[in-house]
Amino acid sequence: MSPAYRTIHERVVDILAMDGTRDAKLRAICYLLRKKVPHYDWVGFYLVDPETPRELVLGPFEGAATEHTRIPFGKGICGQVALSEETLLVLDVTAEENYLSCGLEVRSEIVVPISKNGTFVAQLDIDSHATSPFTPDDRLLTEGICALLPPLF
């Protein structure tokens, strides 16, 4: 992982050690990622709805408002990750048939699942306005961050 991404990861560790609610910490992580990584144009968390367990509900995010505040499992990139529970990196969203457009400017997306005790509980979703901006370091960074988050859930 690049030194810049290592620094971001360390800052997430600091955020998680601070006092505050789960949502405040998730919001701070979204802000940090969007501010520090130029190609992260929208950063947010989707959480499994405890009342509708096969549906994701939008949690804290940074970026433009989205109409996708609820996403059924299986629908779009986020819904696919909810079913597979595996990171999904889409370098060109226009090539995806099962894609929920969050805006005309979105060109690529990475979604990383978060599990607690073997149960899928949430995901980190990042959109970029660039085509193919994500590198292996982006995957390492986002998966590393998500590995730190289960105690929040």
Query: Given the C-alpha coordinates, what overall shape results?
Result: globular
Are there runs of 5+ residues with pLDDT below 50, and where? none
Please report the distance between the alpha carbons of the first and last residues.
26 Å
CATH topology: Beta-Lactamase
What count of domains describes the coordinates? 1
Number of helices: 4
The average pLDDT is 93
Oligomer: single chain
- Beta-strand percentage range: 25-35%
Could you give me the name of the CATH homologous superfamily?
GAF domain
The main sheet comes to:
6 strands, antiparallel
Helical residue percent band: 25-40%
Q: Give the helices and strands as they follow along the chain.
A: HHEEEHEEEH
Radius of gyration: 14 Å
From the 3D coordinates, which CATH architecture would you assign? 2-Layer Sandwich
What is the CATH domain class? Alpha Beta
Can you list the strand order of the major beta sheet? Answer: 3-2-1-6-5-4
What does this structure look like?
The chain is of the alpha+beta class. It has one domain: GAF domain (Beta-Lactamase). The chain is 34% helix and 26% strand. The protein has four helices and six strands; from the N terminus they run ααβββαβββα. Strands 3-2-1-6-5-4 form a six-stranded antiparallel β-sheet, sandwiched between helices. A hairpin with a 2-residue loop joins strand 5 and strand 6 (119-128). Helix 1 packs antiparallel against helix 2 and helix 1 packs parallel to helix 4. The longest helix is centred in the N-terminal third of the chain and has 15 residues, at 3-17. It is globular. 31% of the residues are buried.
